[in-house]
Specification:
Layout: E1 4-7, E2 13-17, E3 25-26, H1 32-68, H2 79-96, E4 102-104, E5 107-109
Antiparallel strand pairs: 1-2, 1-3, 4-5
């Protein structure tokens, strides 16, 4: 099943679908134009995901700060939120313990 694309007034691909939509035209699967469009979409998606992960860390730190200042209690959070926070804390602690390489002067630790 070939992909279908819609284009803007300049002829640039604006969307891809596996279903023929009104105004969409069939394009070859290996088309360089299609592959370029898909690379751009993947890059934008990856950038957004990376930004989301940084924001998640900011929110975790904010929650920790609110708890430390006794503005909220951990148990005030919904159970699914408590579970996620505990899971992420556990993963971060595990990862921080995996520092396998260290540069301590002349010592080399593996």
């Amino acid at each position: 099943m070939p992909p279908y694309v819609t284009r803007d007034k300049q002829g640039q691909i604006t969307s891809v679908s596996l279903q023929p939509d009104q105004g969409a035209s069939e394009v070859a699967t290996g088309s360089p134009e299609l592959l370029d469009f898909m690379r751009k979409v993947a890059l934008e998606h990856g950038t957004l995901l990376e930004s989301d992960m940084h924001l998640v860390r900011v929110l975790e730190d904010l929650i920790d700060l609110l708890i430390a200042r006794d503005l909220i209690r951990f148990t005030d959070l919904p159970l699914p939120a408590q579970d996620k926070l505990m899971e992420r804390r556990s993963m971060r602690e595990s990862l921080s313990g995996l520092e396998l390489l260290s540069n301590n002067g002349d010592e080399e630790t593996i």
